[in-house]
Design a protein that fits this description.
The chain is of the alpha+beta class and 108 residues long. It has a three-stranded antiparallel beta sheet. β2 and β3 form a beta hairpin. The longest helix is centred in the last third of the chain and has 31 residues. The chain starts with a helix and ends in a 10-residue tail after the last helix.
Length: 108
């Protein structure tokens, strides 16, 4: 899943946070960082390839927004993993309830 790799970079995570408050041009995004415009473009390219941002042209400007498809994929993955742990914790809870007399031994 490319999304996790894309989000492993703090600059890209900050770009996603900025876009969560609304769409912005590449130039507007660049004003929030002390890095070059080409570097911002490279980060945006990685986010776009990971399907975390979308871009559209408005005259000479490129406007970026979050891509819900990529975030839906992330959410689905987290949901599956959470289900894995919920099942195991339910089994543990049932076993502990079945043996309430079992007490933790104290060390001398």
């Amino acid at each position: 899943m490319q999304a996790f790799t894309a989000l492993s970079d703090p600059t890209r995570r900050r770009i996603v946070e900025l876009l969560a408050s609304g769409e912005r041009s590449a130039g507007e995004l660049g004003e929030s960082f002390d890095i070059s415009a080409p570097a911002i473009s490279q980060h945006l390219k990685v986010l776009k390839e990971a399907r975390l941002v979308q871009v559209r042209a408005e005259a000479q400007r490129r406007i970026y927004t979050l891509d819900t498809a990529g975030f839906d994929e992330l959410e689905g993955w987290v949901h599956r993993i959470r289900g894995f742990w919920n099942e195991r914790l339910d089994v543990l809870e049932q076993r502990l309830a079945a043996h309430p007399e079992t007490k933790k031994r104290r060390r001398p």
